[in-house]
Amino acid sequence: MILEIDVQGGESVRKVYDECVRIFIEPPSWDVLVERLKGRGTDSKESLRIRLNTARRELELADTYDVRIVNDDLDVAVEELAHTLNIYESQ
């Protein structure tokens, strides 16, 4: 089963299924994340501030994940994710 959930949801799943594999997909840098979010033009200033505060807290927890994938190039990130899923599926 694959779940796309936030950090809090990932922690909740981990508490119930300690054998789960958590994968953290992260931006290449903080500046890139800010530019991506601003570039979408879908958030108000307040909404953007809240999203960035949440992102900062979540990025601080990235080291607690089993696998980290940097989404710098989408094709490469998808390939890394597929490879990671194949590794864990075969175990």
Can you offer a commentary on this structure?
There is one protein chain. The protein is mainly α and 91 residues long. The protein has one domain (7-75): Rossmann fold. It has helices spanning 7-16, 30-40, 45-60, 74-89, and strands at residues 23-26, 67-70. A two-stranded parallel ribbon has the order 1-2. The longest helix is centred in the middle third of the chain and has 16 residues, at 45-60. It is globular, with a radius of gyration of 15 Å.
Tag the structure with descriptive keywords.
single chain; 91 residues; mainly alpha; Rossmann fold; two-stranded parallel ribbon; 2 strands; 58% helix; globular
Name the helix and strand elements from N-terminus to C-terminus, one letter apiece.
HEHHEH
CATH class: Alpha Beta
Low-confidence stretches: none
Number of distinct beta strands: 2
Structural class: mainly alpha
Strand order of the largest sheet: 1-2
Secondary structure elements and pairings:
Layout: H1 7-16, E1 23-26, H2 30-40, H3 45-60, E2 67-70, H4 74-89
Parallel strand pairs: 1-2
How would you briefly describe this protein structure?
The chain has 91 residues and is mainly alpha-helical. Helix content is 58%, strand content 9%.
